[in-house]
């Protein structure tokens, strides 16, 4: 007798998983290692930026009041009493018709309130003393970057849960974050199952294939922002299997197995969940590929039983495991980003269940266009290599025609969706 | 006297840099470390996939000829003579009206040419011997995945220069690439210049700011696929500066300096290039920010003199250094990816030079929409944190109105453009 399983809808299944969301931990890492990590606290301005009034150009700092009468027909001359580069501060008291030669980024001298750009000043010398003259007037504040103009002390500049990009690295340095508070990478345990699996270095043998799921999932885990702990292939023996899983759970935040969750004669995972006393949230989802995806919950840990078919395994990870990982990384939008796209080609296959088609999303004249990235069979690894998205084709249809507007889920994006279902 | 420099157009400047493209090297890395690297050879199928005829379902393998007479009113019975899971091979000789119980992924038994899905077979037992019967006929090949169906031995599956994603990891494993040929990461030397620069851990001082460019560029280098070698801040002394740069060049593939390239009184880079005997390709580009970006060539190495202003520095790296790095990584599309987008807001500022506006690209109803990510001044770090793109506003205009179609360059994308100018 084949076990009858009742499929649940994808959104319902994801909701069940998310209801067991686990709280992530945080840690401090050196700014040199923080690129690509997720902020675990808001990034707050620890000072004004700039923190002093400064010159945005190479030129001459003046008291604007002295320039009031300057015009094309009436140049006004200033005595240049000091000369400072960025990083230096003039300690001269600037008097009437005096100026300081100042370089980009240097602090404005006391009393000065405007900067004349170098190319608008005519320089000269009298008895070894430099002078410059100008032919227009300046208002207070002309060509001055004021303290706090870019950011005010105490302002929240970047929200927690944001992935650190090069611009954020610059901000962290600006505000003195030598140590950066980031989400600790969740540790994701991984087992492969399957008597048919050879290692990557093994010669092919009749009936056996190399284990590709493990390498694929390890990369998916890394892309999601977590860290993998790979325990190897589960032994064929049920008791050993059970013990391996039971002890692995202790060492990880989440546990993923690939294969062994179907209703086949050698699919032991359901029995293992039972013996562990785990609460099986679902063991059949109304989707293709990946309908056998099984998720269970045990003592605050979530066990993901992904299909052994590469594409089903891939989809199962992205739909169910990624959002839990991203939630642990504080992301407010933990799910794959959903957008609309134009279907580029006919997709004549009927869809009794919601179908996730591995697809290549391109942009034509500013519009998203999606096409399947390969033959759509769940055991075909090839279509995954070119996939940067899934086209979602809702169930209960007889196929789709080119130019239909479809929903797509983006795989290489780091924005995410709050809830795409 | 202010030195007069003649600006060249951005495309012309990039072309000059690219004419000095340097050949990248390659190395073999373990498949466990290859995720995110760039293939240095085409990925070729080393075997057929599958490499044997296999069952895509749990079911019974039969000789289709025996099912010819089966119908609803005439069930045909088969003796089940063997039982195999994935990874096992049946060595039974299958005769007339005999079947093998077979699990998903297992190799088809000799003589069998069709699979009956488990749920379509009625199982029974007679004297301890299992039987099954079916009520429809099967054609040769029904429910069989044939050898070579997914990939043929010798086929090129992924081109060199492609960034390795999780799907490609799966393929590498499938084809036994325990060691993966990837482009060696170019080593990018980096110096900061500027008397005003404090370290990230320093307290703020009057007139001084923390060095943000270094941390930003290190992340940009990493994002581009290269590796940084940071030499610290250049000393204030010209001779020491010169010697530091001269010796650093020996150790790296490209050398980047930030700051010191303008025409200010403390900008030493131009003199250093002169003393090194480097061929200055350009020292002024008709763009904002980053017009002072200077690139020089010396003995097969390229020296990038980026502006000290954070935004100018950021743009200079992405436009000029990134494509050289990606070329060394074998990418056929080494430049930032260019797409069309709708400008979301007015941009009233006049553009004497081509302007690269740090911007946030979003998608609305499947269409790209771009808006500036912050105040557009070249010294404003804040706008970089939210930037995932640059809006390109061509020079010689009086500003742009909302809803105009503009070109954008994507920063977080790994596709790239062959030539976006």
From TrEMBL, chains A, B:
It is an enzyme of class 2 (transferase). It catalyses: adenylyl-molybdopterin + molybdate = Mo-molybdopterin + AMP + H(+). The keyword Cytoplasm does not apply. Residues 189-327 form the MoaB/Mog domain. Pathway: Cofactor biosynthesis; molybdopterin biosynthesis. Its EC number is 2.10.1.1. Its cofactor is Mg(2+). Gene3D superfamilies: MoaB/Mog-like domain, MoeA, C-terminal, domain IV, Molybdopterin biosynthesis moea protein, domain 2, Molybdopterin biosynthesis moea protein, domain 3. InterPro entries: MoaB/Mog-like_dom_sf, MoaB/Mog_dom, MoeA-like, MoeA_C_domain_IV, MoeA_C_domain_IV_sf, MoeA_linker/N, MoeA_linker/N_sf. Keywords: Magnesium, Metal-binding, Molybdenum, Molybdenum cofactor biosynthesis, Transferase. SMART domains: MoCF_biosynth. Catalyzes the insertion of molybdate into adenylated molybdopterin with the concomitant release of AMP. Belongs to the MoeA family. PANTHER family: GEPHYRIN, MOLYBDOPTERIN BIOSYNTHESIS PROTEIN. This is Molybdopterin molybdenumtransferase. It comes from Robertmurraya beringensis.
């Amino acid at each position: 007798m084949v076990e009858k399983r009742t499929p649940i809808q994808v959104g319902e299944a994801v909701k069940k998983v998310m209801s067991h969301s686990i709280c992530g931990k945080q840690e401090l890492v050196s700014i040199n290692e923080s690129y690509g990590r997720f902020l675990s606290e808001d990034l707050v301005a620890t000072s004004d930026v700039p923190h002093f009034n400064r010159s945005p150009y190479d030129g001459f700092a003046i008291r604007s009041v002295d320039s009031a009468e300057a015009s094309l027909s009436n140049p006004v001359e200033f005595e240049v009493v000091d000369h400072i580069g960025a990083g230096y501060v003039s300690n001269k008291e600037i008097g009437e018709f005096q100026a300081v030669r100042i370089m980009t980024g240097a602090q404005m001298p006391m009393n000065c309130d405007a900067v004349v750009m170098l190319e608008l000043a005519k320089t000269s010398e009298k008895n070894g003393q430099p002078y410059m003259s100008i032919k227009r007037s300046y208002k207070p504040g002309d060509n001055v970057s004021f303290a706090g103009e870019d950011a005010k002390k105490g302002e929240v500049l970047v929200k927690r849960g944001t992935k650190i990009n090069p611009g954020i690295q610059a901000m962290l340095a600006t505000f003195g974050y030598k140590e950066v508070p980031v989400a600790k990478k969740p540790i994701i345990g991984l087992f492969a199952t399957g008597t048919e699996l050879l290692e990557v270095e093994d010669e092919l043998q009749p009936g056996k294939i190399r284990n590709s799921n493990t390498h694929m999932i390890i990369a998916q885990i890394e892309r999601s922002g977590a860290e993998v702990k790979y325990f190897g292939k589960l032994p064929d023996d049920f008791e050993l299997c059970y013990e391996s899983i039971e002890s692995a759970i202790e060492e990880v935040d989440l546990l993923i197995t690939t294969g062994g969750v179907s209703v086949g004669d050698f699919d032991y995972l359901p029995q293992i969940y039972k013996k562990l006393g785990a609460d099986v949230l679902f063991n059949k989802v109304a989707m293709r590929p990946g309908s056998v995806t099984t998720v269970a919950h045990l003592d605050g840990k979530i066990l993901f039983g992904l299909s052994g078919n590469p594409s089903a395994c891939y989809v199962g990870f992205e739909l169910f495991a990624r959002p839990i990982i991203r939630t642990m990384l504080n992301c407010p939008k933990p799910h794959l980003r959903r957008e609309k796209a134009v279907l580029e080609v006919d997709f004549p296959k009927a869809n009794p269940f919601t179908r996730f088609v591995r697809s290549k999303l391109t942009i034509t004249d500013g519009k998203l266009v999606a096409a399947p990235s390969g033959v759509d069979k769940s055991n075909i690894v090839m279509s995954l290599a070119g996939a940067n998205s899934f086209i979602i084709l809702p169930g209960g249809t007889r196929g789709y025609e080119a130019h239909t507007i479809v929903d797509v889920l983006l795989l290489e994006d780091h924005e995410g969706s709050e809830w795409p279902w």
